[in-house]
Amino acid sequence: MAVLLLLAAAIVFIPTLYYLLQTLFQRLRFNLPQGPRPLPIVGNLYDVKPVKFRCYAEWARTYGPIFSVYLDSKLNVIVNSSELAKEVLKENDQQLADRHRNRATMSFSRGGKDLIWADYGPHYVKVRKVCNLELFSLKRLEALRPIREDEVTAMVESIFKHSSDPDNRDKSIAMRGYLGSVAFNNITRLTFGKRFVNSEGGMDEQGQEFKGIVSNGIKIGGKVFMAENLPWLRWFFASENEILAKHEQRRDRLTKAIMAEHDLARSKTGGTQEHFIDALHTLQQKYDLSDDTIIGLLWDMITAGMDTTSISVEWAMAELVKNPRVQHKAQEELDRVIGTDRIMSETDFSKLPYLQSIAKEALRLHPPTPLMLPHKANSNVKLGGYDVPKGAIVHVNVWAIARDPTIWKDPEEFRPERFFEEDVDVKGHDYRLLPFGAGRRVCPGAQLAINLVTSMLGHLLHHFEWTPPAGVKPEEVDLTENPGMVTYMRTPLQAVPTPRLPNNLYKRVPV
């Protein structure tokens, strides 16, 4: 019994002593940003509120635009101003271009062999080149446009069928399901060249497995792995390794089965398609890409492109239901440019500046990843006059920056007209608006995301009038957020669609 008590005391005392010495060393050696006082071992874990970006914006009012937070024993530096964002993403970009990987992302990326979770270095530069020159080139985006337009018009047809049923007239629909279907089908067709959902809404066995893997990945991503917070007890949490290993095996099994199908098809036809899986197979030898990197890249596209697109459109539609003035102004533009005898295409975007501004304004107020993905310092660096030691994790609070009253007029108001008053870039060149990041880690698929979000919004607004459910006033639409790395609406949007075009314009345009 005495031995067990001594062992328990050692398990608690030794890590606590190590933490205190490490923290003391950092504070004596470095001029760290101020922040809330951390507790031993757990740091500020119990101080942080569930919706982190709002919590950090509140703390910035107390500690200033840059402050330190300890999440368990790891030093995190939070920046909340456009000036500091520029220091992180431009002036010190190379020193802060590494990624912090937790146990889940370490497993998903095979230790950073993909793009999203790779540290900055020769591997990242090579894979980034593949994305910029090959996967997300303007030529390939244009070649894949028919797929995007097919899926968006399929959504319109589905909503029209539902709303035209006499039993459903004047009843609201749950937007998230329709938007999620577009994002799901679009990303599976872009990556794997497969539409797992048929025209009746049924899903084949492979599709069910794919959806299960995505769902399980989200659960694992949100799980707290005790061995990460208590690394000296990693042996005690061996079952956590099993969870990650099983998920990896399941994901790889499906991906390799689909790759084999494409290999067989190519051997029969001798040709290749524009889908990412075929493109990566063609590029594998040219760029010396490992199988782990190809699988990692495919799943990067899926995880980065699926949720963020549907989230962005749901937030935008919520703002449009809440602000009927903006909705009607967008519909006036669509009617003037497109008319009522045809449907919108992506080629019309350049003639629809107000629609594009709506997409921008939604991304400003509701960035899908409000804290970006975490950067990590690969050397000691200065930010805002403070020291950021090597290994520190750096977060840019793009949500707080986009609502900063010192750089935005009426920042809480949904007002797309602001982008007519001043041209603000959305793809990483203006540090006031950073939904896709900036610098070396800017999202390579930003243009693809913008095209799909704008297309979905344009079709929804051109085809339908949108109002709140019966008994709900526009100003009562709930715009609070759910906690998480990507930010869903806490209350899924319900809205009533009323068709506004001739019936023959509600048919899917299949590829």
Overall description:
This protein has helices at 2-29, 52-63, 82-91, 103-108, 122-135, 138-143, 145-164, 175-192, 205-221, 226-229, 238-269, 276-287, 291-322, 324-337, 353-365, 398-402, 418-421, 446-463; strands at residues 66-71, 74-79, 98-99, 173-174, 375-376, 381-383, 386-388, 393-396, 464-467, 494-499. It starts with a helix and ends in a 12-residue tail after the last strand. The protein has a single domain (81-506), classed as Cytochrome P450 (Cytochrome p450, Orthogonal Bundle), CATH 1.10.630. The chain is globular. Helix 5 packs across helix 12 (276-287) and helix 7 (145-164) runs parallel beside helix 18 (446-463). It contains 18 helices and ten strands. It has 511 residues and is an alpha+beta fold. Strands 1-2-8-5-3 form a five-stranded mixed β-sheet. Strands 4-10-9 form a three-stranded antiparallel β-sheet. This is Cytochrome P450. Keywords: Heme, Iron, Membrane, Metal-binding, Monooxygenase, Oxidoreductase, Transmembrane, Transmembrane helix. Belongs to the cytochrome P450 family.
